[in-house]
Specification:
With 276 residues, this protein is α/β, with parallel strands linked by helices. The chain is built from 8 helices and 12 strands. The protein has a 6-stranded mixed β-sheet, sandwiched between helices. A 4-stranded mixed β-sheet has the order 4-3-6-5, with helices on one face. The chain has a two-stranded antiparallel ribbon with strand order 1-2. It starts with 7 loop residues before the first strand and ends in a 6-residue tail after the last strand.
């Protein structure tokens, strides 16, 4: 699928080495706020949903993906045409995005529970219960050879043009069962990269993603497991470790969670039958 460039910036730096130092100019990733709004068919004014810090680019996908993975919309059929309206606030950057819906929208759905600590077992159980009510259990019966799984990081990295230039972006890639990279999105936030990718597929009418697998460049948090499960992804891989809550959630959602995919090895934490 065609990709559009995301923004980069230049910064003056001082390069320091053991024996010398020198002034230089570096390419760095851009971070800007994005306000996401929803304008329903019956409302006079849009509702403010969230503000996220993100790398500019693919604003329509990020907004739609966020609404989808938060359970606020269920698919492309709920979107008006055109689905997204962008508003430039400063320096030509689209910092406000409004998603237009064909149906009414209940603003009370925006109320979420935020927990003070990731070690709270009761809070974690409540989070999993909430997501489990919104997603169908992932019952995909296909499997992949381990030899393919361990190749995913190198295939993802090879396509990360923005990371290659800045060294400061996370990536999320959607792969076919044959290991072909279908879509790649990069962002300063790993959750934004996944929302952009999922939003692209929602706009294309391709969710659920029950026949594909996903690879992320960082660690696996509960939030990423939740977002992937909402999109129907049955196999989620990462180059780093999952959290305990991510493992518990994936176990209950029926999702295969694979961490430490690097150097020809991997660790399968849940539902190992999908990795041969």
């Amino acid at each position: 699928m065609a990709d559009s460039p995301i923004e980069r910036a230049r910064a003056k730096v001082l390069r320091v080495a053991p024996l010398d130092e020198a002034d230089s100019v570096e390419t760095v990733s851009v971070e800007e706020p994005l306000e996401i709004r929803v304008h329903s068919a019956q409302a006079l004014e849009p509702s403010r949903v969230a503000v996220t810090m993100r790398t500019p680019g693919h604003e329509d996908e990020l907004a739609v993906g966020f609404l989808f993975t938060e359970g606020l919309i269920r698919g492309r059929d709920e979107l008006a045409r055109p689905a997204v309206r962008e508003l430039s606030i400063a320096d030509g950057v689209n910092n406000v995005v409004t998603v237009r819906l064909e149906r009414a929208f209940d603003p009370t759905l925006l109320q979420r529970n935020f927990f003070a600590t990731s070690s709270c077992g009761v809070c974690g159980k409540a989070s999993i219960d909430q997501v489990e009510r919104a997603v169908e259990r992932l019952n995909a019966s296909w499997s992949l050879p381990r030899s393919l799984v361990v190749e995913l990081p190198s295939r993802l990295r090879a396509a990360q043009a923005q990371f290659e230039a800045t060294g400061g972006l996370h990536a999320c890639g959607l792969f076919s069962q044959s290991g072909e990279l279908e879509v790649l999105r990069e962002d300063v936030g790993r959750h934004n990269a996944m929302d952009k990718l999922i939003g692209r597929m929602v706009l294309a009418g391709r969710v659920p993603l029950s026949e594909s697998l996903m690879m992320v460049s960082g660690r696996l948090s509960f939030e990423l497991v939740q977002k992937a499960a909402m999109a129907g992804v049955a196999l989620l891989c990462a180059v780093s470790a999952p959290s305990s809550l991510a493992i518990r959630a994936a176990e209950r959602f029926g999702q295969t969670l694979v961490g430490f995919v690097r150097d020809g090895r991997c660790t399968v934490y849940t539902h190992p039958s999908r990795v041969r």
